[in-house]
Specification:
This protein is α+β, with helices and mostly antiparallel strands. It is 17% helix and 35% strand. The relative contact order is 0.21.
Length: 325
């Protein structure tokens, strides 16, 4: 068994309409699924990705209208990366973010890669990462109707940053339970802190990395809007997912057991620092219940919720996702 890389990252927004505008109009991602939080059907779950939501390209959001301010800290997923094709694309994005008044830090280096750190309107910590020298997991393909040129657009999720106070328990889970290996490190931007360690799995590269940051100066994160709820890693299929469940049980790691999310099968557990990990299958995917040309235009409900559609729709604020770019 070997994890294939990042599957998706799920975060929190307090406003689905504003979130939809930013991620589709400003960042040019495609809304590939407008559905509900299956654990709380009263709120939206929005999936932004490449042209059809290939595994490894999905950034998702739960809408929690009452979500408060996030207070950054340890035991958190503190940064999400989005991959772009090359260094030239970063120059385009630097100009685009400036033009739209989006807070960013300009193009900098992260190890041997060029990156561009920025914040969304709810202060989620995001990074555009250049795939210029990537030789690992391949990226996806920009949607033909994106608001961003196809040679500049976002092609998937990049490295996910975890921030902890005590790194050893997290390292043990990454390397001894999961299939990550440390492949490098780079200096922390915070004076006096350890270098940020880079761990990779599968084919490696930008689509298969976790970056582990140690912060001795921060309390535990208090999550709210703009915080990240969990990161999911890619598993081939349901049979392999069942093997992962057995392994977690053997290692006495409490877990959810297999969960059917309809678009993929999942397994959830928390590593010792309290960060929520998910293992998710590559399929069946988002075209299971919608035509590829019309992904995200209507409220999609897994079959077990279909009988309650009227009640569910009545509890959701209208969100028009049919407008062309």
């Amino acid at each position: 068994m070997a994890l294939k890389g990042i599957h998706h990252v799920s975060a929190i927004t307090a406003n689905a309409a504003d979130n939809y505008y930013f991620y589709t109009e400003i960042l040019g991602m495609r809304l590939v699924k407008k559905t509900i939080n299956q654990d709380d059907p009263s709120v939206y779950h929005l999936f932004y990705a490449d042209e059809i939501g290939n595994p490894g390209t999905d950034l998702t959001f739960f809408e929690i209208p009452q979500a408060g301010t996030t207070y950054p800290g340890v035991s958190s997923i503190s940064g999400t990366s989005l991959r772009v094709p090359d260094d030239g694309a970063l120059t385009y994005w630097e100009e685009r973010l400036t033009e739209h008044g989006i807070d960013h830090d300009g193009i900098t280096n992260q190890g041997d890669r060029h990156v561009l750190h920025f914040r969304d309107p709810e202060n989620q910590q995001l990074t555009l990462t250049s795939d210029e020298s990537n030789t690992g997991v391949a990226g996806g393909k920009v949607w033909k109707n994106s608001s961003v040129p196809s040679d500049k657009g976002i092609i998937g999720l990049g490295p996910v940053k975890l921030t902890v106070q005590n790194p050893e328990p997290t390292i043990n889970v990454l390397t001894k339970t999961l299939t990550f290996q440390q492949t490098g490190s780079y200096p922390s931007p915070v004076a006096g802190e350890e270098e940020i360690r880079v761990f990779a799995t599968g084919e490696g590269g930008t689509g298969a990395e976790v970056h582990l940051e140690v912060r001795s100066d921060l309390p535990r994160e208090r999550p709210g809007r703009g915080s990240v709820h969990h990161v999911a890693f890619r598993v081939n299929d349901e049979d392999e997912l069942a093997e992962w469940k057995n392994l977690l049980q053997e290692q006495r790691l409490p877990n959810s057991g297999l969960v059917d999310r309809f678009y993929f099968k999942s397994l959830y557990f928390r590593e010792p620092n309290g960060i929520l990990f998910e293992l998710a299958t590559d399929g069946p995917g988002f075209t299971t219940d919608e035509h590829p040309e019309h992904l995200g235009e209507s409220l999609a409900l897994p079959p077990r919720f279909e009988s309650k559609r009227k009640e569910i729709e009545a509890n959701l604020a209208p969100l028009d996702t049919t407008k062309p770019h």
